[in-house]
Design a protein that fits this description.
two-stranded antiparallel sheet; elongated
Length: 380
């Protein structure tokens, strides 16, 4: 399972982080890194530094000083980096034959077993986070990104400016680009971030309902023509379903071997920009409701070679090949709710698996199925 557990820190180590270069604070057992917030704190960075390495729970609730809003606590949670080792954890580490299994890094399975034996497991307030995405659950896909803070922290893309030219001119290495583009950001849910910033912008957006409006009549008409030349409706359905299955295999192959050719992506701006335009933006802003489905222009580009494939494989009968093609084209825009949830896990949990979109069948066959659901340990 592609996840890590936030570490436990010794109280002495937490207390040492009290400078402008590294400023941590705590509330209870939680440890927060506030270094990047020092310059933005309304009361000034010196006030945070005053409590560097200390518990700020009381001062944040002090109405005389300043009673902080819920957004302040939300910001803290975004900067959660670990937990203070409590007495039960320390006791277990001292008595353990392998204390390094427990402290200062997260306990491994052996260390966790010793914690359970000593009744200290409940004192480990862990949280599972996917290291490649920085997310711990699908709910994180709906939390709007602080655009200014995200840009200041990661130095990648400013969501308020046209994205494509930022990628082109960014000078990003392949490793840095892939690490960032697979960490989903959430823009304003009612609009899309600019991609081109010019007259091409509308071509990059497609409302979901455009797909059935444009393609279902085409599929229906093509299926009718195919049916007229096939002896029985049973044979027609069999060929039509064959097309659906064939497309699901083609789709899996393209998603895994073309869209996610990350390992073999050339390390230059032409390849990186092409990757971003083809599929990277979908991973970077996966909840963009106007870029959730394939634009009709790209749909035609992908549907045309599939037409050639169907008529090459089933060359002996035009009607059979057309039935296969229509079944596949029907599968192309299909996006059932269960599969949508599965595909969302591909985004927030592990972009290196779960390549099926209209079917998870080939993930099972080729060993790339996502493990569902991920077990999340709630922070107490």
């Amino acid at each position: 399972m592609p996840s890590r557990t936030l570490p436990n820190y010794m109280a002495k180590e937490v207390g040492s982080h009290k400078t402008a270069e590294s400023c941590w604070v705590t509330i209870g057992s939680k440890v927060y890194d506030m270094t990047n917030f020092l310059g933005d704190h309304p009361g000034g960075g010196d006030l945070i530094l005053k409590y560097g390495g200390k518990d700020v729970g009381a001062i944040m609730k002090d109405e005389i000083s300043h009673n902080h809003s819920e957004s302040a606590y939300d910001y803290l949670e975004e900067n959660l980096i670990g937990f203070v080792a409590t007495d039960p954890i320390l006791k277990t580490a001292v008595e353990s034959g392998r204390p390094q299994d427990i402290l200062p890094l997260p306990p491994n399975e052996s260390g966790a077993h010793e914690l359970r034996i000593n009744g200290a497991a409940d004192h480990v307030p862990t949280q599972e986070v996917c290291p490649t995405t920085g997310m711990s659950s699908v709910e994180d896909m709906f939390k709007e990104t602080d655009i200014a803070e995200d840009y200041r922290t990661h130095k990648f893309l400013n969501l308020e400016k046209p994205l494509l030219m930022q990628v082109w001119n960014g000078g990003f290495s392949k490793d840095f680009y892939l690490a960032q583009v697979h960490r989903p950001r959430v823009y304003d849910r009612n609009k899309s971030p600019p991609l081109f910033g010019n007259f091409l912008e509308p071509l990059s957006k497609t409302a979901w309902y455009v797909v059935p409006i444009v393609w279902l009549p085409c599929v229906a008409y093509g299926s009718w023509l195919a049916y007229l030349g096939i002896p029985s409706w049973v044979q027609f359905i069999a060929f039509w379903l064959t097309g659906f299955v064939l497309w699901s295999l083609v789709e899996y192959g393209m998603h895994r071997g073309l869209f996610h050719v990350d390992k073999y992506l050339p390390d230059n701006r032409v390849a990186i920009t092409g990757h971003f335009l083809l599929h990277g933006i979908h991973h970077y802003i996966p909840m963009d409701k106007y870029r959730l489905v394939m634009p009709p222009t790209l749909f035609v580009v992908l549907a045309t070679p599939f037409y050639k494939l169907a008529h090459t494989v089933f060359y002996w009968d035009w009607h059979v090949a057309t039935a296969v093609y229509c079944g596949g084209i029907f599968g192309l825009p299909s996006y059932y709710q269960q599969l949508r949830s599965y595909h969302m896990e591909h985004h927030w949990k592990d972009y290196g698996n779960g390549f099926g979109v209209t079917s998870r069948f080939w993930d099972c066959i080729f060993g790339t199925e996502l493990v569902m659901p991920i077990k999340t340990v709630k922070v107490s």
